[in-house]
Each structure stands twice: as C-alpha cells, then as structure tokens.
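Lab channel / #folding
Pinned by the channel admin:
"Please post every new chain as: sequence first, then the structure tokens as a reply. Keep commentary short and put observations after the output so the thread stays searchable."

First post following the new format, from NK:
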Amino acid sequence: MGDPIQTLGDVDPQDRVRVTLLNGEQLDGTAQPVEFDPDRRVRIELRSGDVDHAIRYDVRAEYRDGDWETPVARRYDVEHEEGDWVTMGDVREATVLERSSDREDRSGERL
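Reply from TO:
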C-alpha cells in the first residue's frame, strides 16, 4: 500500500481515481478540479455518475509543521437545502485507476 498523499499529488485532471477509507468504503470518480501545493495542501474533487446526477466527493489534506495530515474524504450533500459537505472519514489508500493521458492516447485507435 502506497502513501495516499504521494498518489493524490500525482493526480491530473480527468484521471479516474479510487480512494479507500479506513472503514473499507471505496469512492470512485473523475478528478476535477485538482489542487496540489507540496508545501501547503492537496485537494481533489471526484465526480461520478452522469452530469445531471453526479455524486461529488472531496479529498483533502493540509501540510502543517513539516507533516501531512491524514487525507479526509467528504461527500456533497445535495439533499440539504443549501448543500453542504459531509465528512465521510479518513483516507487509507488512493489509486489512479486510469490516466486521462492514456484515454487521450487511445482516442484515435480503431477497433
């Protein structure tokens, strides 16, 4: 199992990403937007589902006093009247399932 911060820091927009929480729950989605400042923070929003019914997740961690905090995943609660981010738990692992660059490279291939 690799360091989730290192994996999250290597994510590019439109990559397909899976994060596994400490409780074993897995969240998959397409990364957009991606923010990474190696001296400050990492924040990635994951979206799954179609545009009209997208589920939004947010994975973030801060760099403080020379160490990274444990990344935390949140889900956007569209049921709430004003919308709100609900904490789901700490992230144990992060995996890039598919790179956007790989999809772009195959876009011209014929079957």
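NK: DSSP finds two helices and seven strands in the chain.
TO: also worth noting, Residues 106-111 have pLDDT under 50 and may be disordered.
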